[in-house]
Amino acid sequence: MAYPCPVFPNASSLFVHSGNILNWNRLKKKPLQSQQEEFIESVKGTLSSFLESSQTDALQNIPKLNCIHSELKESLPKEERSELKLTVKIFLYNNQPATIVRDAVEKVLSELDVEYIETVLLSWHAEFGEDEDEDELRLKHLQPYWEVLQDLHDDDLLLNAGVSDLDRDLLEELYDWAKVKPCINQVNLASCCTMPPELIEYAKATDIQLLTHNDPKAMFPDATLQEIIRNYTTQMDSENWVKRQQIASIICVDGPCKPNNACCGKWRCQCNTDLTCFCNPQTMIHVTNTGILQALSVLLQNVNKMVNLQEKSEKPLQFGVYRYSSYGS
Question: Which residues form the NADP-dependent oxidoreductase domain (predicted)?
Fold first, then answer.
């Protein structure tokens, strides 16, 4: 539907909650979608449904919009908490302040209505200074964020902390410096067909678990985000949205999974949730991405707008997959 004027010109945040996407017929018809395709489809579907059921005139002056599939929204049963293992993966972009880690964890705790998370993983995707190679990640870049994780650990909000895609040398530097030692290092097999031998040797010596992942580096390009908003609202609504940070991956299982992320016979993976954050250079936005049976959350932010991302998880057969998105302006 085309709109003659901006739909939500005064909104400072937009929260998108897809509900249990396992109940989405449109996704059931596309079972072989990639993580990226599924994520984009969930954002499109939720935004479209919200606008179709809303009196758009009423959105003109609302500062905070809640875009929710109410009929598909479900919660995490407290009686099943002991059967679940929660893992949150946070993707960090463009020198986001370290406080974003606590914000993300506290949001997950609130959305899932749980008191703690088993594991939080950090993944750095950023430029680290004008005088440095943008691909050169150093210990000094990790330390502020890791200190926040250590505080969360001291507050009993998380049990374990891990990282993603650190090479052997940087992993050793972090391990030697940190009070709360990293217990997991994820490795993207798109960049290496086999685990580096020196990394395997060090991980064995320090009891660090090596896991594989296939998270795309560009899960939700800025142009895609802008296009989705533009297609369902107006050009003005879509302008100046850029990615800033991504919070990802909540995995719920009723037992431990194998190191290669495959489930062993006795245990079954229940859900996987990814979050992503997007920001304008002067503001911030969050978005969440997920895999085929993943629960997501998305935070986005526009020029002069600030977005807050939320995320949630599901148990596929019991309650399902969720996606949340927040946009700010």
Answer: 78-212
